[in-house]
Design a protein that fits this description.
Layout (H helix, E strand, L loop, with lengths): L1 E5 L7 E2 L2 E2 L1 H17 L4 E5 L10 H17 L3 E4 L6 H4 L3 H5 L3 E4 L9 E5 L2 E8 L4 H8 L6 H17 L6 E7 L1 E2 L18 E2 L9 E5 L5 E4 L2 E3 L16 E7 L5 E7 L6 E6 L1 H6 L10 E6 L8 H8 L3 E6 L12 H5 L4 H13 L5 H24 L1
Parallel strand pairs: 1-4, 4-5, 5-6, 8-9, 9-12, 10-11, 12-14, 17-18, 18-19
Antiparallel strand pairs: 1-15, 2-3, 7-8, 13-14, 15-16
Length: 387
């Protein structure tokens, strides 16, 4: 069975101030063309269809168009909700849409109920695990403490229990939206940390033939059977080195698989350039970036006059301007933002405690801080879901 694995469409999202709807439409066109030309048997969409719980109308219209085009091909699609989606909104009409071969899986309670498709070698069971927010699903899965690993492990227990009831030789595919250990994140993914832990081990998914992951925006192979497709378009300059692709996966009769990357159409290259303003304007080696979307970091000791206007004369698609004067690590004028770069909210809070009282928090106090951050983040999720 030939599968096309994609995820993280983020319909409705912009790239800095650039509207990406046209580029997202071009991606849908490539997806449909690939399904038709490569004779795909099933399309997998592993969450974050939309960029937010209540997407703009234009994004909803593009999603509707995508569903119609996929249904017209007569090729089944299995789709789950991600942490950016409103599972309840995305799942409206799922039973009716399912009659057209578009199988939306947004309800955590249905984790052990697969979409079963068949080829010449028998059945393939597709289990859709929508994004499982631990605080919201721990009762459904009967876990004592909310955590990503515990709820995913409980969901996979249901998957294995169902798979055990099926005919010998039934192949299995799991769609999941999670941060799996070993994956490389980028700046454009929303933080899903709970209890100081964001990731889960790949071993949680042991026992199935293929795991189609969503959430991280870079295409990645964690194991032969556990892969991220990544987002089809860039959504931050941290993705400058990404190759945006989908996975074309062939699942053989015995569960052996081969995988091929299918390139997605990217509207414009990304470039990160750094130096003084005069260096950036004069360096001939930067000519290759003149038509790219550019993030420019200026290292001038004193902020130059009208830097954006001058930069866009050479790099007309400059979208981001960062000021980072070259200073020694002990320079008292080093910016606060630079001192905090790469540190988590928990680490910043612990540093603040140490600064105020001369000693950092003990284990109990670290737990209190962690619980406070988790509570705030969970409240945000609940409000988003309720919209």
């Amino acid at each position: 069975m030939r599968l096309l694995h994609t995820s993280d469409w983020h319909l409705g999202r912009s790239f800095h101030r650039v509207n990406m709807l046209q580029a997202q439409s071009a991606f849908i066109g490539r997806l449909v063309a690939t399904v038709r030309e490569r004779e795909v048997d099933a399309v997998l969409v592993s969450g974050d269809v939309y960029d937010r719980a209540v997407p703009p109308l234009a994004a909803v219209e593009l999603f509707d168009e995508a569903l119609h085009r996929l249904a017209d091909l007569g090729v089944p699609t299995v789709m789950i909700s991600g942490n950016h989606d409103s599972a309840r909104r995305l799942g409206v009409g799922a039973a009716l849409i399912g009659r057209a071969g578009i199988h939306l899986r947004t309800d955590p309670s249905a984790a052990g109920t697969p979409v079963v498709l068949a080829d010449a070698h028998g059945d393939v069971a597709f289990y859709g695990l929508p994004y499982l927010e631990p605080a919201l699903v721990k009762e459904e899965f009967g876990v004592e403490k909310a955590g990503h690993e515990s709820v995913l492990a409980a969901a996979m227990t249901r998957v294995r229990a169902d798979l055990a009831t099926r005919a010998p030789g039934t192949r299995s595919v799991v769609l999941a939206h999670a941060f799996v250990t070993g994956g490389e994140p980028s700046d454009s993914e929303r933080d899903i940390t709970v209890g100081g832990v964001a990731s889960v081990p790949a071993g949680v998914f042991d026992g199935v033939d293929y795991v189609a992951l969503g959430h991280l925006h870079g295409s990645q192979t964690l194991t032969e059977r556990v892969r991220y497709s990544g987002s089809p378009l860039p959504y931050s300059f941290s993705e400058t080195d990404h190759r945006k692709t989908m996975w074309l996966v062939d699942l053989d009769a015995d569960g052996a698989l081969t995988a091929e990357r299918i390139d997605c159409p990217v509207p414009r290259a990304l470039a990160r350039i750094s130096g003084t303003l005069e260096e950036l304007l004069a360096d001939p080696a930067l000519a290759r970036h003149e038509e790219a979307w550019v993030e420019a970091t200026l290292t001038d000791a004193v902020r130059p006059a009208e830097p954006m206007a001058r930069l866009t004369e050479r790099f007309p698609h400059t979208l981001s301007l960062v000021f980072a004067p070259e200073r020694g690590p002990d320079d008292p004028d080093a910016s606060y933002a630079r001192r905090l770069a790469g540190r988590s909210d928990q680490q910043i809070a612990e540093d603040f405690v140490a600064h105020v009282r001369g000693a950092g928090p003990d284990a109990r106090e670290r737990g209190v801080l962690r619980d406070a951050f988790d509570a705030v983040r969970t409240d945000d999720v609940v409000r988003e879901v309720a919209r």
